[in-house]
Each structure stands twice: as C-alpha cells, then as structure tokens.
Design goal:
With 188 residues, the protein is of the alpha/beta class. It is 22% helix and 12% strand. The radius of gyration is 24 Å and the shape is elongated.
Length: 188
C-alpha cells in the first residue's frame, strides 16, 4: 500500500504499560503485552506515528525512541519473527486516520451522550480498581440500554408476530409460533 493511512498511537498506557501513572517522567514499565506482535501486522496497513503528551519536549521524544529501540531489541532476541520498527515520533498531533489512546472515547456526534458526572468515573484499562466495569462504563457514559442480541441470535426467525408484534417467532413444522403470545401462522 503506497499511501498508507496514519495510525496514531499514544505512548503511556498504550505502548508503555504505565502501571503506576506519571512518575517524574520516568518510562519504567515494559511494553504492553502483545505490542510488538501487533505492530508487525499494523505496519502492513498503516504508517504508525507515536504522539504523546511527552511529545512537545525533544528530550522526551528521545527517551521514548530509546525505550522503544531497547525493548524492540529485547523482543527480537526472544522471537524468530523479524521486527522492523517503521514508526515515527511526532512532536505535534498528526492528521491521523485513527488514534489509539487509553484515555479517550469515540465521539457519538451528540454531546448529551456524555454526562460530565459519569465522565469523572472513567478509568483507563491499567487501573485495576475501576469504579464502573469497562462495558458497564461505556453503557452508562453513552446512556445505552444493556446489550440485547437480535432475535436471530437468540434462536428466533426474525419474523414479527401479526397478533402481538413481538419478534419471538420460532419454526413449528412448516409454520411459525409466537413464543410471546402463542399465535401461529395458520397451523394448529
């Protein structure tokens, strides 16, 4: 792919495990599990650019780059899969096709979906004592009802009952039977 889209990655909490949060700027943890394996695949499809709150400072960019090189070398020593680091470190946020960040939500287009009080309860993946479990947080923050699978995933045909309007129709021989009201489509 000649002109690959830009995939922007945050550094702390995405590439660098960042288990203790900001510690005087130290980059103290190893990479998140599976990062280099994922990076090999991602580089086939994207131009990978790393951008972080650290990126404004040239010395921080150098620290991130040195950390990445060190851990890539360690990874290469343990694996037979070749790893080429075709990543760049940006000093300003790139015009990316997509960004992966541990502290972001996808905007729905409707500000009423984001209750400021609920936002205060957000916890990134690496903070073990999240106040609201991750799937539940997403539902609460976007005011979504709990997930209900479509009728076909629940074993129903997907047809609507002409009697009650329910979608809980099942095959009953050549006919359909509504499990909500008992109505059949002509069979007795």
């Amino acid at each position: 792919m000649a002109n690959k889209p830009i995939l922007c990655l945050d550094f702390d909490g995405v590439i660098h495990r960042y288990s203790k949060g900001w510690q005087d700027g130290s980059i103290y943890d190893p990479p998140t599990d599976g990062f280099f394996e994922w990076l090999i695949r991602a580089q086939d499809h994207f131009m990978v650019v790393i951008y972080s709150s650290r990126s404004k400072d040239g010395s921080e960019l150098a620290k991130m780059s040195a950390w990445m090189s060190k851990h890539a070398m360690e990874w290469r020593a343990k694996h037979e899969t070749p790893l080429q680091l075709n990543v760049s470190f940006a000093h300003k946020k790139p015009a990316a096709f997509l960004t992966i960040d541990d502290r972001a939500l996808t905007f729905s287009g409707d500000w009423s979906d984001y209750d400021p009080t609920a936002l205060l309860h957000f916890k990134p993946w690496n903070q073990k004592r999240a106040i609201v479990p991750e799937p539940e947080f997403d539902r609460v923050i976007h005011k979504q009802p709990p997930y209900k699978p479509p009728p076909k995933e629940m074993g129903f045909t997907g047809d609507l009952c002409v009697q009650c309007g329910g979608a809980s129709m099942v095959r009953n021989g050549p006919c359909l039977l509504c499990m909500s009201c008992g109505h059949t489509t002509g069979c007795s």
